[in-house]
C-alpha cells in the first residue's frame, strides 16, 4: 500500500460507486465494515458485508466456520410451495388514475431482519424449539430465537440505522454528501438480504431468507387492510410498496393527510417503518401487449 495517499482500484467494490464519484460512500462503508479504504476498494461488496458479520460473530462469541456448513433442511414439494415464494404482489388494475399516493416500507427486508432477530442461527433454533418461546413466523412452520441475538440481525443494525437517518437528513436538506453515503449503505443492505440465501455465504441460510419473505407478505397484506379500512382502494402493490386511490371523494390535501396517518398506523401495527413516499397527479398501469386483459407488470 502507498503511504501518504490513497489508491482506489476501480475494478471491484469501488467501481460500484466510482462512476458517480461517490468517494464519501466508499469511506462510509470502509468505516462500518472496519476495512481499510485501499483494501475495501479491491474486494466485493459481499466481502465488506461479511467483514461486519465476522466482527459481530467475534463480539458475540461465536466461532466463525472456515467453510459454509449449514445445508438446507429437507423440504417436501408442498413445503416448497408454501415457503419458497418471495414477496407478495397485488396485480395492478389496468387504467389511468389521478390523485394516487404511494406508501413504502423503508429498507423493508433489512428492517425485518434487525427487528425480528432473523439470522441463520436464530431461525428454527434448538433452544426455543420445544418450550414455545420462539417468535412464530407468519404462515410457515418456523420459529425465531428469543434467547440469543443473531449475528446477521446485529450486523445489519448499524448500516440500517445510519441509512434511515441519512435518508431523513437528505430529505430535509438535500445534502449531496449524505445522499452519497445513503446510496452506498443502501447497497450494503440490499446485498445483506441476498447473502442470507446465498449458498456460499458463511452465515447464510435459506430458511432465514424465506422467513424474511414470509414477514414481508404478511405485513403488505396487513398494510392493505389498514388502508382499506380508511377508505382507500389498493390499485397496485409490490413487495414493500402500495399505491392507494381515494374512494371517498376527499380533496387531494385531505387524502394526503389521511394517507400520512395510515402510514403511521401501519408503522405502529407492524413495528417497521412505513413511509409516505409521494403523491402522483396521474398514474397509468398498462395492459400486456400479448394479453390485453392482463396488466403488464404481473
Ligand atoms: Zn432459541
UniProtKB/TrEMBL annotation:
GO molecular function: DNA binding; DNA-directed DNA polymerase activity; nucleotide binding
Enzyme Commission no: 2.7.7.7
Catalyses which reaction(s): DNA(n) + a 2'-deoxyribonucleoside 5'-triphosphate = DNA(n+1) + diphosphate
Residues in DNA-directed DNA polymerase family B multifunctional domain copies: 85-268
Keywords carried by this UniProt record: DNA-binding, DNA-directed DNA polymerase, Nucleotidyltransferase, Transferase
Enzyme class: transferase
GO biological process assignments: DNA-templated DNA replication
The protein's name: DNA-directed DNA polymerase
Organism: marine sediment metagenome
Amino acid at each position: 500500500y502507498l503511504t501518504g495517499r490513497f489508491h482506489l482500484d476501480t475494478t471491484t467494490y469501488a467501481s460500484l460507486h466510482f462512476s458517480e464519484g461517490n468517494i464519501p460512500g466508499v469511506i462510509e462503508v470502509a468505516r462500518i465494515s472496519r476495512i481499510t479504504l485501499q483494501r475495501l476498494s479491491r474486494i466485493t461488496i459481499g466481502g465488506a458485508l461479511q467483514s461486519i458479520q465476522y466482527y459481530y460473530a467475534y463480539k458475540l462469541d461465536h466461532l466463525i466456520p472456515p467453510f459454509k456448513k449449514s445445508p438446507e433442511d429437507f423440504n417436501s414439494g408442498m413445503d416448497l410451495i408454501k415457503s419458497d415464494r418471495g414477496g407478495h404482489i397485488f396485480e395492478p388494475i389496468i387504467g389511468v388514475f389521478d390523485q394516487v399516493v404511494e406508501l413504502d416500507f423503508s429498507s423493508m427486508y433489512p428492517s425485518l431482519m434487525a427487528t425480528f432477530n432473523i439470522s441463520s442461527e436464530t431461525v428454527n433454533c434448538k433452544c426455543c424449539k420445544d418450550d414455545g418461546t420462539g417468535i412464530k413466523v407468519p404462515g410457515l412452520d418456523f420459529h425465531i430465537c428469543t434467547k440469543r441475538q443473531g449475528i446477521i440481525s446485529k450486523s445489519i443494525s448499524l448500516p440500517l440505522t445510519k441509512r434511515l437517518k441519512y435518508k431523513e437528513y437528505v430529505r430535509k436538506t438535500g445534502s449531496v454528501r449524505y445522499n452519497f453515503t445513503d446510496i452506498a449503505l443502501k447497497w450494503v443492505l440490499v446485498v445483506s438480504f441476498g447473502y442470507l440465501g446465498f449458498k456460499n455465504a458463511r452465515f447464510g441460510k435459506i430458511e432465514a431468507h424465506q422467513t424474511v419473505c414470509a414477514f414481508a407478505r404478511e405485513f403488505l397484506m396487513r398494510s392493505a387492510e389498514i388502508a382499506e379500512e380508511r377508505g382507500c382502494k389498493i390499485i397496485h402493490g409490490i413487495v414493500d410498496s402500495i399505491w392507494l386511490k381515494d374512494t371517498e371523494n376527499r380533496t387531494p390535501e385531505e387524502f394526503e393527510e389521511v394517507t400520512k396517518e395510515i402510514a403511521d398506523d401501519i408503522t405502529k401495527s407492524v413495528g417497521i417503518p412505513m413511509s409516505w413516499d409521494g403523491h402522483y397527479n396521474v398514474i397509468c398501469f398498462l395492459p400486456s401487449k400479448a394479453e390485453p386483459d392482463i396488466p403488464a407488470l404481473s
